[in-house]
Backbone:
């Protein structure tokens, strides 16, 4: 029963694989829930900032803030690419890298130099493979990104932007639309697009009040605009982590389902082979007995 | 009563009612009671005290906003004490 033993081995191996993918699915589900909570918890801060900035901001003030400088002919811009440190998340990293590549090509077509800053082993691996030099790379952003991580990433770039060495900063990340939809997105974080008065996510933002301002609008904005930029990066970080976990969950769910299908086929084949063998043995015995009697 | 929230980038650290707020503004302490005029002020470094609830936070930077007895303390560095 050589074929039977072979099939048994394969069934065992697929069962083991399914055990692993199912566990990974459950781990990713619980990590995703926590990451999702962090995405939600980051909203009030973003809304409060947007509210105050939009109510204090007026276009006349724009020229006084270096972070709002609109470069006419950008010479050099930075692109921050967020990817994950681990694989087995379906097309998650491939999609992010593709979005980054499209963005780089688009900026370079306009004759602008792009320096690439990559977060996450997967992105670093890709850019190393294609031989592109990276301006910076880091792999120490964990499943729980902090606001400090965001400021470490973007503070240096903001300083360069203010000094006029950079003419723009973009970030490519996974937008967390819902647990099932985390498309890659690229957002321009510098120059800052000031939030405008409108209702955002159901909350009125930028309602004009006659605020008493201490010390004055300009000083407050000088303080808050960098916070706004850091917050944009922080949000990109937490959304990317949530996106990674939800992509992994989907990938592992599919793998588990596929393993189940394969098991069904293998078990059916195995049982058929076993049955065929038993039938054959009976036929041989009956045949042998008949021969003796005859 | 004032409705107060203390908000950091990562989470809302406090949300609730108090009767007064004493915050470390950039140029000294600022006290807020009900009926305060709408205000936005930068914060410095120091202790934020939420009167009735007896809650205290160490804050650094950020701003404080008052509108219609709703106080929002929004800061990148806030730690409960």
Residues:
């Amino acid at each position: 029963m050589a074929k039977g033993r072979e099939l048994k081995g394969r069934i065992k191996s697929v069962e083991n694989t399914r055990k692993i993918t199912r566990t990974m699915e459950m781990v990713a589900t619980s990590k995703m829930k926590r990451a999702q909570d962090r995405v939600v918890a980051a909203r009030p801060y973003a809304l409060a900032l947007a509210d105050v900035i939009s109510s204090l901001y007026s276009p006349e003030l724009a020229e006084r803030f270096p972070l709002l400088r609109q470069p006419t002919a950008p010479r050099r811009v930075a692109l921050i690419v967020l990817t994950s440190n681990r694989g087995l998340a379906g097309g998650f990293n491939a999609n992010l890298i593709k979005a980054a590549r499209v963005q780089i090509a688009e900026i370079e077509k306009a004759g602008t130099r792009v320096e690439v800053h990559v977060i996450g082993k997967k992105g670093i691996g890709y850019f190393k493979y294609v031989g592109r030099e990276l301006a910076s790379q880091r792999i120490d952003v964990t499943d729980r990104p902090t606001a400090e991580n965001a400021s470490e990433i973007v503070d240096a770039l903001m300083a360069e932007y203010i000094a006029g060495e950079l003419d723009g900063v973009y970030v490519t990340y996974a937008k967390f639309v819902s647990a099932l939809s985390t498309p890659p997105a690229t957002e321009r974080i510098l120059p800052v697009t000031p939030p405008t008065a409108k209702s955002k996510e159901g909350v009125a933002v930028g309602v004009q009040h006659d605020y008493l301002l201490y010390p004055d609008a300009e000083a407050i904005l000088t303080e808050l605009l960098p916070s706004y930029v850091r917050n944009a990066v922080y949000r990109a970080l937490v959304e990317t982590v949530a996106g990674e976990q939800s992509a992994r969950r989907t990938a592992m769910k599919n793998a588990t389902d596929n393993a189940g299908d394969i098991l069904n086929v293998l078990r059916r084949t195995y049982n058929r082979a076993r049955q065929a063998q038993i039938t054959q043995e009976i036929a041989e015995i009956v045949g042998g007995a008949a021969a003796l009697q005859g | 009563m004032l409705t107060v929230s203390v908000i950091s980038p990562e989470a809302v650290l406090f949300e609730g009612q108090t009767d007064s707020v004493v915050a470390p503004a950039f140029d000294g302490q600022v006290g807020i009671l009900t009926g305060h005029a709408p205000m936005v002020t930068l914060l410095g470094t120091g202790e934020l005290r939420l009167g009735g609830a007896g809650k205290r936070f160490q804050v650094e930077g950020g701003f404080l906003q008052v509108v219609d007895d709703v106080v929002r303390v929004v800061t990148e560095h806030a730690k409960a004490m």
User: Anything to note?
Assistant: Chain B has a mean pLDDT of 91. The radius of gyration of chain B is 11 Å.
